[in-house]
Here is the input.
Amino acid sequence: MHAWPASEVPALPGEGADLQIHDTATGGRITLDPGPVARIYVCGITPYDATHIGHAATYNAFDLVQRVWLDTKRQVHYVQNVTDVDDPLLERAVRDGEDWTALAERETALFREDMTALRMLPPKHYVGAVEAIPGIVPLVERLRDSGAAYDLDGDVYFSVESDAHFGEVSHLDAEAMRLLSAERGGDPDRPGKKNPLDPMLWMAAREGEPSWDGGSLGRGRPGWHIECVAIALDHLGMGFDVQGGGSDLAFPHHEMGASHAQVLTGEHPFAQAYVHAGMVALDGEKMSKSKGNLVFVSKLRHDGVDPAAIRLALLAHHYRSDWEWTDQVLQDAVERLGRWRAAVSRPDGPSADALVTEIRQALADDLDAPAALLAVDRWAALQQSGGGTDEGAPGLVSRVADALLGVAL
Here is the structure.
């Protein structure tokens, strides 16, 4: 599966600072210190609907991580998956009377278009669950053969008790885990499971549903968590720098994935930091496909909204905060974009050297994009008042906005 084209990242003078970021597993801030190549895995979409603002906010957060790393002169090895076979996708296809593969391909293509328009830097490896199945099957077989997984009526389940570190990502108690498992794709009430929290690794073929050869597992399809584990281990290995996604993935998805990988390899941790973006609401409720309260990036673009304004609307909120999308949020972003573009269109202006440093410091401080935007606002206000004669300043502001914030002026 191919990703989307990369926009050019302008070079800036000097070098950025190492990123301090909030780690869900430790509950505090840590300083990321990758080697020359920083490694990041971000969980991708299940392509049964178009990219909504909640998706865009999550991918914007991890795009900032990449940009901070690139500014430290590191290379970035970014991997993202596409869950192109799963119950919600199959259910939507049945509801709409559409072939599930056609639905997945169409929505994945639209996602690529949205990411391109928003100037999100693409992953080096963009991998679908279906194409990952040949690598998933041996992992499930290894877990079963080691006693860390078991058969239940042809399905294969992972035993969470096989991992001594289970629970160290989300730090939830058993009852909270059980409730979230039921809410987020698990089946804690299924009779016969050793532990209600045990997640499915391999689902035996169901009538009328797609299935693949699973070797000794029989025909079927993979569970959700083992998909990402197989892709991450294949392309990044253990101990990569950042596992990213929305805050609703901390449990069960990232908790279960970490346990799968740790039992498979005997190493810990799966990732050095677990970084989670907040949820975006609409009309007082979390934006989600199940509720249908979605604002689509493609619809905004179709209505003539500049993608740079959409990106500024996302950047105006700290990545870890929960916030609400409103018409005013978008209007504020449109107006900010207009002020910035007017400011950089002049032939000279106030020196921007300190601004570059301020933006770098803000982003290194747990991706404080709102502080970075305010810094540009202050420069634009000085520009408006005629406060400078530096001929290189407008161009430098344009480059730093593009390179570090992904906003094309």
Summary: The domain at 302-405 is CATH 1.20.120.640 (Four Helix Bundle (Hemerythrin (Met), subunit A)). The two ends are 31 Å apart (CA to CA). The chain has a mean pLDDT of 96. The CA atoms of residues 47 and 104 lie 5 Å apart.
